[in-house]
Amino acid sequence: MAAEIRVFPCLSDNFGYLIHDPQSLKTAAIDAPEAGPIMKVLQREGWKLTDILVTHHHADHVGGIAELKKTYGCKVTAPHDQGTAIPEVDVRVAEGDTVQVGALTARVFETPGHTLDHICYVFDSELALFSADTLFSGGCGRVFEGTYPMMWQSLKKLRTLPDDYRVYCGHEYTAANVKFCLGIDANNEALKKRAEEVAQLRAVGKPTIPVLLGLEKKTNVFLRADDPAIAAAVRLKGFSEDDVFGELRERKNKS
Ligand SMILES: [Zn+2]
Prior knowledge:
By secondary structure, this protein is α/β, with parallel strands linked by helices. The protein is built from 9 helices and 14 strands.
């Protein structure tokens, strides 16, 4: 039986995610921006929270952990980097580790850049990538703790996953991201179509997530820093991938 995944808003623009295994009845939250909305969805579905899979230490991803742990006694899995203030951690994981949620298996990808401890969770059986603040739809996270080359390597690692995987990212930033991409890649038909779809979804208050990784590979300029067309568009023809990625990120920072 396939897992059930729920997507819902938390805080101002975070996504809350629950993944439920109907066989074992285990349910994991991917990050815990705040307890309230997560508990509401759990109650609505009649699910009990057994796990929290943490992607990185930022407050808007861990703020709900203490209350959820108190309520459900759930297991908290977090990145191996212990220099960060993630509360109530039971298990630390690193690159190549797997996490079980009942019959569901998540692979851990280390993706430093936004923070040094950032990890993503990949559920291959569900074709699901929980990319948090590394890869957004149409964008990528700000590079707070790592370097631009480090972030570019992390994005390239996620890009190795197949096109039919769905991306579940940390924030609803898609409309602004797609607008930024259009400013660089104005004649990209797939991007123009995605922009229309995003505008329609947002007009009725619907999330733009999940999105197919294959579509991101075609439309997200931050996954295309090694594409000569993108290098030319930012006037860095012949420069390195790292230079092009850095220029894209700098431009986005200022946008
Ligand atoms: Zn973050």
